[in-house]
Request: fold
Amino acid sequence: MVRVIGVRFKKAGKIYYFDPHNIHVKKDQNVIVETARGVEFGEVVVGLKEITEEEIVAPLKKVLRIATLEDEIINKENKEKQQKAFQICLEKIEEHGLEMKLIDVEYTFDNNKVIFYFTADGRVDFRELVKDLASIFRTRIELRQIGVRDEAKMIGGIGPCGVGLCCSTWLGEFEPVSIKMAKEQSLSLNPTKISGICGRLMCCLRYEHESYIELRRGLANPGEKVITSKGPAIVIDNNILLESVKVRLIVKEDGKKKDVSLSDDIYIFHKNEVERTGNVDIQQEDEDIEDLEFLEDLQE
Reply:
């Protein structure tokens, strides 16, 4: 086991583990740490704890010191310089006529590097832009192209639910989201209803995914034949949260001609009150496949 602390460098950013190195560090304190890209200023969001070596991304960097008042001032000055650098970069992008959208600017704590984050539809030749920026800031310049999800995380906004975006308020890392998750939660496969402001599938589709998988276990699908206490029936709908199915009883069935007559009345049974026979309506599944192909472009 290894003793570490968790440090975050941005609001809702990824948490990185560091070796406290005999420094008594508490949660919510600011620290100066050594990272792969230089010395950085961060906030301790996970107090001292022990983790296995498998959870560590080697090499494990050390905490240099608890942030002093002077460090706090330097960090504040860097934030102010970032705003000026953003405006300068915008002007230079316009001068060079580059088709790119500047999203954010970040100074490393030791000012050894300035990172410009941008989005673009394709590859951008920004070599001349880098030369101009290097001559202005007189330090290392890095232009990093990001995706639309990262853009939303940096800019922030209000989601369809009416509250701040999860990615910009508390979600540290993005996890894969698929159309299958929306389908298993019986959500509308309308792209406008299941996509976020970034244009990709909403991250919240994943939050209850495992619970829905567990609730769906043993639940008959629409079109499936089941045996109930009132006789054989065909499932016409199911309710995942209530773990129940709506069925219509089979009044008449001709096995040779595959003709089935169903009752007008609808009955509701819990999934444990019916016996599944394994016969599934293939036509319904084909329709779902068409929906999945239509929404394929929403996935990462």
In short: The CA atoms of residues 134 and 260 lie 76 Å apart. Residues 280-294 have pLDDT under 50 and may be disordered.
